[in-house]
Write a structure and sequence with these properties.
The chain is built from six helices and nine strands, in the order βββββααββββαααα. The protein is an alpha+beta fold and 165 residues long.
Length: 165
């Protein structure tokens, strides 16, 4: 898996460390990560994630903060560890994006299914809820280079014994 929890409040995503910030939200202590951690987990830029949010592919982050420090805009989109790990699992099963645009509807449905969960889901749980790479109708697109044609004869091996038949 590309995401490991090193210790409380710290994730390792594709070899890069991300530290959580702890917030008190309505009396509940929540560890949140900046959008960069989700970006790394999904192997997409933060700009792409923002575009996905505007297009309705990703839900609006549950945790948004505004403000600035010494005139610099602070991160305004925050995600929980569970959201990051669950969305990574969905993306591994349904790798929507470059070259996989046919998975869009299945990806959106799966993201909405796991986005609000408070626990990390297993791959078996995703399958149990019908989140598989075959969810997009025909599944993986047909590749004519690997298709088997029953009417085609197998190539003959080269060599003198097979040439004299």
């Amino acid at each position: 898996m590309a995401i490991e929890q090193i210790k409380d409040g710290e994730l390792l995503v594709h070899g890069k460390r991300f530290k959580a910030r702890v917030f008190d939200i309505n009396g509940r202590v929540v560890e949140l990560y900046k959008v960069g951690a989700l970006s790394a987990a999904l192997e997409r830029t933060t700009g792409t994630l923002e575009m996905w949010e505007k297009a309705g592919i990703l839900p609006t982050p549950l945790y948004r903060m505004r403000g600035s420090v010494q005139g610099a805009l602070r991160c305004k989109r925050w995600y929980s560890k569970e959201q990051i790990i669950n969305l990574r699992k969905v993306w591994r099963v349904l790798p929507y994006g470059q070259g996989q645009m046919h998975l869009r509807d299945a990806f959106i449905k799966a993201v909405k299914h796991v986005f609000y969960l408070k626990d990390v889901v297993s791959l078996e749980m995703l399958e149990h809820h019908g989140i598989t790479n075959h969810q997009a109708g025909a599944g993986v697109p047909h590749d004519p280079r690997t298709a088997h044609d029953a009417n085609r004869t197998a190539p003959r091996p080269h060599g003198s014994d097979h040439q004299r038949q």
